[in-house]
Design a protein that fits this description.
236 residues, 83% helix, globular, mainly alpha
């Protein structure tokens, strides 16, 4: 019972943190509009032309930025929000997920091949914890871990890199697990470009509802897979 209660408390903190991020992003957009930047905020073409570049190049630049910054620990929710703002809900979510998945591969690959000694020395207990959790089924455990985000994405990537698990299923599971929240934050970012106040309110409401729902689903998945990893739930 204690473990379940712990998961519930962690899940609540995770959802509150996500809600706070949504509120901060919304406040930043509102503040920019109040500052007279409506033309910039209301025109995604301005953003792609002046920030990302023109034409197809903007896609590659955005994916590269997501890869680099997510590998360094920048919250992927912010990247998805910017993706939704620049490329719309679906395009932003998919591009941010691709970039964050590549960032996961970059960080964990660096840890495995170049920084293993220093990372083990710095994060030894966390490395052991991640290794125990992921070693059962790296793909499904990584998926559960990302659906129900715990702790630092950056540290998890480094810990996985120096653990004994194969990196490919970890990166694939992580990338798929990133998608639900990236979709929600991209929806939120796209909604900030809505022309009417009603459209903005609807997008915000949908984002909040989907975020809470995804958090509950992620919590349930994490509980199940953690129980499987501990041998509590029979396989099959």
């Amino acid at each position: 019972m204690k473990k379940i209660d712990d998961v519930g408390r962690i899940g609540l903190r995770s959802m509150l943190k996500g809600m706070l991020m949504l509120a901060v992003f919304a406040a930043a957009v509102v503040a920019a509009r109040k500052a007279g930047l409506d033309d910039m905020l209301g025109n995604t073409q301005w953003f792609t032309d002046h920030v990302l570049g023109r034409g197809p190049l903007s896609v590659f630049i955005f994916v590269g930025v997501c890869m680099g910054f997510s590998a360094l620990g920048l919250p992927r929710q912010l990247l998805a929000f910017l993706g939704g703002f620049a490329f719309g809900m679906l395009g932003g979510a998919l591009l941010a997920t691709l970039g964050c998945g590549l960032g996961c591969a970059l960080a964990s690959g660096y840890a495995r091949f170049f920084g293993k000694k220093g990372i083990v020395r710095r994060f030894g207990p966390r490395v052991q914890k991640v290794d125990r959790f992921l070693s059962h089924q790296p793909f499904t455990m990584a998926l559960a871990l990302r659906l129900f985000p715990l702790g630092s994405n950056f540290i998890t990537n480094l810990a996985a890199g120096v653990s004994s698990i194969p990196l490919l299923p970890f990166v694939l599971g992580s990338s798929i697990g990133y998608l639900p929240q990236n979709f929600i934050f991209a929806l939120f970012g796209a909604g900030m470009n809505a022309e009417s106040r009603t459209g903005v309110i609807l997008s915000v409401g949908m984002s909040i509802a989907l975020f809470v729902a995804s958090g509950l689903v992620g919590m349930a998945a994490y509980r199940r897979y953690r129980a499987e990893a501990a041998g509590v739930v029979d396989e099959g």
